[in-house]
Each structure stands twice: as C-alpha cells, then as structure tokens.
C-alpha cells in the first residue's frame, strides 16, 4: 500500500481509540488525521469537488474511517451525514458509510432489517401512538412478560426503562412519550441467567473476529459504560454466524453486535430461530476498548487492514467533476 495515502478519521473527540487507529495506519505507512464532521462543509465554490475537509486543502482523503459523529440538532446531524454521503458520491470509500450508519443508529430500522433478513431478534414494536404502545405493554404483561422501552437513538445503555407488572401485580403506566422523542420503541425483555450477561461480537469485513461476555453492570443493563465486567468468550459458530448475518443485513463494513441467549418464544421471527442467540443491537460506530482488554487481537490493526486491503483495494471510482477532470 502506497505511503502517499491520506485517511480522514472522522471523530468528534480524540483519545484512546483514535490513538490506536493512527498508530495502526502509521504501521502501514499511511498518514491519518482526525477530522470533526462539524468542521466540514459543502461549498459549491470550493473547486473542484464542492466539499471542504479540514486538513486536506482542495483535495479529498483517499478514504474516511468513521469513528464518531457528534450529536446535535436534526439539521446538524443531517448535514454531518450529508458530508459522508457526499464523500461516497465523490468516489471516496467511507468505512462505515452513511447509509449503513443511518440503519444502525435508528433502532427501529435495525429491528426491521434484522427481522426481514431472518436474524433472530426479540419481538419489537415502534410507533408514535402511546395508546398502541400501552396495549402492547398490557398484552405482554398479561402473558407474564416485560418489555424494554428505549430511546430510538441512543447508546451505552442510557435511557432504558424496563416495564411490566410491579409489586402486587399492578401494571405501571407507559412513560410519557415526550421523554423518548414522541416515539415508543418497545422490545420484549428476555430473562437471562444470573448473574446477567450479554455478548459483544466484533465483525470486521464479513468475519467475526472477537467476542466477550459483559457481566453485571447496572442491574439488568450490561454495557461496559454502565460498569459491566468484560470477560473473554468463546466465539462459537452460532454467535459468529448470527453476528455476521446481522452486520450483513445492515450493510456495515464493521460492527459491534450485542446478543443475548435466546429461549423458546423470544424471537420475533418464530420459535425455529429462538434456540440461537438473539441480536439486541448492532453498533455501526462501535467502541472496542472493553473488548481489546480481553482479546490478543490488535483490533485497530485489524480494522485498518480491512479498510486498506479490502475496502480501499477495490479502487476509487472515477467521478466526473464540473471541471471536466476525473477524481483529483
């Protein structure tokens, strides 16, 4: 791989992850620099591309690695994703690209695509009707089940509410939807083993490369950010296959896939799939510090190798510009 390559690491914060990535790129003789999407702009006077990426002058990076997208208003986030779309339209490989990130950030679309592709996942409901959501809650409670209400956009186990029959069998009312952006996203709660745990499987370039168990944490929430302990986990065929299928369903180059043990009747697509692990979420901008602590694989190096040797090796497609030139 030529040492003239220049890669943009799209991130709103620098630290452990970006340091590991830059080190891995340097080991391959590639220059990588961090760029905040909030500092990029679409500028049709900025010839020849109409896209200004800080640190790259009037040229574009050879590829972009998306490490983080800062939250903001709907307009701000739309523009930041628009910059990633624009890079792709300009022939720049984006890892993961905006289309795939949009699918994984929106939990309702993740659930839809997992179900559509036959990937085992808990039964899920999403809509804007509080009355419908309350009926779902009542129906599930009558069957002796609980549901988890989640923000449609969110990560690290923040904002989750477990709902169902409480003390004395009384059913607590549905929380106001205004606290959840006026959207009710409900997922059937799967009662696991004690102490509770889930799996995080990392998929890179269509291969499951590492797995861990996240044990404990804040009650029934087992995210590393919520205090869960990370333990090595055997990457079984069932875990690997399910995680790969989930990543493929969303069109991601790499992903952190969260799974839990399935039991009869938990899966949204029938009991035939319920014996397999169930996919809870698919993270298209996955952190890996916890996983790195329990695996010997150099995860940053594996990500960089996949970007350079598979994604970028396919070549940048020539793009016709207003100037009549192709590419740069």
UniProtKB/TrEMBL annotation:
EC number, as in UniProt: 6.3.2.-
Pfam families: RimK (PF08443), Rimk_N (PF18030)
InterPro entries: ATP-grasp (IPR011761), ATP-grasp_RimK-type (IPR013651), Rimk_N (IPR041107), Rp_bS6_RimK/Lys_biosynth_LsyX (IPR004666)
Root EC class: ligase
Essential cofactor(s): Mn(2+); Mg(2+)
ATP-grasp domain boundaries: 111-308
Alphabetic keyword roster: ATP-binding, Ligase, Magnesium, Manganese, Metal-binding, Nucleotide-binding
Matches recorded under Gene3D superfamilies: 3.40.50.20, ATP-grasp fold, B domain
One GO term describing the cellular component: cytoplasm
A GO MF term: ATP binding
NCBIfam families: rimK_fam
Name of this protein: Alpha-aminoadipate--LysW ligase LysX
């Amino acid at each position: 791989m030529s040492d003239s390559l220049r890669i943009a690491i799209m991130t709103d914060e620098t630290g452990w992850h970006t340091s590991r990535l830059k080190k891995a790129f340097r080991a391959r003789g590639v220059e990588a620099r961090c760029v905040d999407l909030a500092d990029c702009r679409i500028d049709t006077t900025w010839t020849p591309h109409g896209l200004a990426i800080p640190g790259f002058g009037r040229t574009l990076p050879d590829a972009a690695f998306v490490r983080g997208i800062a939250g903001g208003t709907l307009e701000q986030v739309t523009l930041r994703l628009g910059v990633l779309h624009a890079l792709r339209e300009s022939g720049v490989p984006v890892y993961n690209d905006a289309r795939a990130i949009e699918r994984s950030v929106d939990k309702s679309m993740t659930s839809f695509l997992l179900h559509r592709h036959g990937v085992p996942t808990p039964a899920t409901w999403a809509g804007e009707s509080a009355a419908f959501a309350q009926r779902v809650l009542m129906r599930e409670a009558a069957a002796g089940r609980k549901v988890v209400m989640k923000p449609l956009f969110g990560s690290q186990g923040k904002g989750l509410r477990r709902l169902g029959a409480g003390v004395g069998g009384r059913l607590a009312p549905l929380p106001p939807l205004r606290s959840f952006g006026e959207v009710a996203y409900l997922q059937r709660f799967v009662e696991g083993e004690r102490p509770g745990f889930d799996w995080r499987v990392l998929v890179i370039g269509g291969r499951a490369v590492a797995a861990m168990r996240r044990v404990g944490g804040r009650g029934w929430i087992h995210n590393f950010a919520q205090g869960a302990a990370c333990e090595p986990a055997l990457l079984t065929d069932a875990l690997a296959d399910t995680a790969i299928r989930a990543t493929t369903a969303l069109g991601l180059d790499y992903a952190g896939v969260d799974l839990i043990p399935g039991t009869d009747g938990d899966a949204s697509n029938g009991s035939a799939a319920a014996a397999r692990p169930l996919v809870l979420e698919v993270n298209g901008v996955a952190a890996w510090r916890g996983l790195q602590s329990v695996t010997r694989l150099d995860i940053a190096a594996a990500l960089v190798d996949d970007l350079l040797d598979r994604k970028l090796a396919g070549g940048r497609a020539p793009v016709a510009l207003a100037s009549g030139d192709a590419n740069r």
